[in-house]
Amino acid sequence: MAVALVWFRDDLRLDDQPALRAALERGWLPVPVYIHAPDEEGDWAPGAASDAWRRRSLAALADALERRGSRLLVLRGPSLGTLQALAALTGAEAVLWTRRYEPAIEKRDAKIKRALREAGLHAESFNGALLFEPWEVATKQGDPYRVFTPFWKAARAQWRTPRLWDAPARLPSPDAAEAPHGIALDTLLPAPSPPWDAGFWQRFTPGEAGAGDALARFLGQALAGYASARDMAAEAGTSRLSPHLHFGEVAVQRVAAAVLDAGDTIAAEDRDRFLAELGWREFAHHVLHHFPKVPDEPLDARFADFRWARPLQARLDAWRQGRTGVPIVDAGMRELWHTGWMHNRVRMIVASWLTKHLRMHWRHGARWFWDTLVDADLANNTQGWQWTAGTGADAAPYFRVFNPVTQARRFDPEGAYIARWVPELAALPPQARFAPWEQPELLRRLAPGYPRTPQVDLAEGRQAALEAFALLKRAR
User: Fold this and answer.
1) Domain span at residue 368?
2) Dihedrals φ, ψ of 94, to 5°?
3) In what order do the strands lie in the sheet with 29-36?
4) What span, in angstroms and rounded, lies between the C-alpha atoms of 52 and 340?
5) Overall pTM surpassing 0.85 (yes/no)
6) How do residues 414-428 score in pLDDT, each as one tens digit?
7) Residues 312-322: pLDDT tens digits?
8) Residue 178 lies inside a defined structural domain of this protein
9) Please, what is the Cα angle at 279 between 108 and 400, to 5 degrees?
10) 232 and 104, same domain (yes or no)
11) Alpha-carbon 475 to chain mean position
12) Is 286 in contact with 380 (CB distance < 8 Å)?
């Protein structure tokens, strides 16, 4: 039987796995392989939280393959040389993989595909990460979209019922191709010591089975009412599928199909709102593909000359550690540190505080999220930070400055989220948790360890941001 290397990357699943499916349907013996080569990802090699998740997700994939009679071959890069050597060793005539869209990876993969084909191998990549390829949705003039609403309208017009695929119960063994056994996962990605990631796994279960459970839980518990509950910080009103989607543990096509098939008990408003969130994920990849410099440069070129504040290390550290003196901001940053995740509404609030009230460059925040989020995705992370900072595609205007007290009162009305993640404020009456500096005696008596005042006065910080933006406009 002819052999095909099935190169796993951020597509760590068996169902709806296009490379594996192609190998089986074309009669090739699939040899599943994962190659660890973080240095090939340029300036955006995976962060610590991503590596912690990847280790567990790869272990889950290896177990799933072994239950089917196959196994995962884990190797260390460089990717091209490793694939070439493995193809020669196994006699493989094909290398198949699922596409990624990060700029450094797109360039690398194009080089790998050319080199493999020049060597006489069949090299083919597939879409397994998006509903629509970035080059499939364009304006009438053929340009990429920079605004979400027309992008999503055009994308939805192209919607086709996805062709889902369940992996077979048994797979051929790579031993028939005399494949080597590779590197132990514990050697490649050792578990953290001490286990700083322990809180992650109280909320998440990496792997395809964990993704399936998360999807079922969302469909059964949170899809109904999603449109309103998704913004409430203390409620489990979001899908929490983002890390599973990032690592490809569930296909976005399967998620979308499940939501569309949820039945008449789900209001159209809830269904469409969630599909639009998947649309924002698509839009982020669309922008990253067409504007590959956005992880480091503003998409809105006006902001290349914006007067960001000097990044004072003490202020930046206090933001990272959840010690800003603004409870909703501190709650979000502590949730991130403990769980590797943060509620989406709160992400916008903490990002606005950093980029508007502190006026620090959005890259400082993007880098911190990149290292600490289990769903750290270059397209989505960049989109989120540039959107909040007012510098990106379809961005909130820079002069829109979130008031963190107003936001907390609206989206955490009982102060439950704040009490959960800033427990020193739990003794305060709920309405005193939003702006405790307004009741200094109560704060001193019931929460003596919490900062007496915010890093900057809210009104003064907002005014300084508006003045900096006014200077930018006058310079034009």
Assistant:
1) 301-475
2) -145, 150
3) 73-76, 29-36, 3-8, 92-98, 122-126
4) 10
5) yes
6) 999 999 999 999 999
7) 999 999 999 99
8) no
9) 100
10) no
11) 36
12) no
